C-alpha cells in the first residue's frame, strides 16, 4: 500500500458497522479483517482512512447480502490530523466496495470522501462527487 500524507488514526476495529457509500447494492457492512495489518498475535485488527478492509454485507439487495467483499474506507468519525495542522472528521463511517485490484464496483459515490483516499486509490476518487 502507498503511504498517505496524514497521520492515520486506526479507529475502525473488527466488528464495526459502516455504511456503504456507493451504488453497488449494499447498504450496511461489517468489517471482519484489515488487509496489510501487522500486529501482535490475537490482537484485534483496526483500520483507518484509505485502508482496504474485508467486509460482510449485512443490509442491501438480496443477491449481495451475506457475501464477503473487499472495501476501502472513505470516511471515519474519529478526528485525524493532516500535515498542515488541519483536523478532519466526518459524520459517519463509510466504505466503498472494490474488487481485487482496487477498482470500485459501483459507478458513483454518495457524499464526500477524504483526500487521502484519492492519494492511495485514484480510481475511487475518480467517481467521487466531493473530495474534502
UniProtKB/TrEMBL annotation:
It holds the Pfam family Ribosomal_L14. One of its GO terms (molecular function) is structural constituent of ribosome. One of its GO terms (biological process) is translation. It comes from the Archaea. Keywords: Ribonucleoprotein, Ribosomal protein, RNA-binding, rRNA-binding. InterPro entries: Ribosomal_uL14 (IPR000218), Ribosomal_uL14_arc (IPR019971), Ribosomal_uL14_CS (IPR019972), Ribosomal_uL14_sf (IPR036853). The keyword Ribonucleoprotein applies. The keyword RNA-binding applies. GO terms for cellular component: cytosolic large ribosomal subunit. Belongs to the universal ribosomal protein uL14 family. Binds to 23S rRNA. Forms part of two intersubunit bridges in the 70S ribosome. Part of the 50S ribosomal subunit. Forms a cluster with proteins L3 and L24e, part of which may contact the 16S rRNA in 2 intersubunit bridges. This is Large ribosomal subunit protein uL14. The lineage of its organism: Archaea, Candidatus Iainarchaeota, Candidatus Iainarchaeia, Candidatus Iainarchaeales, Candidatus Iainarchaeaceae.
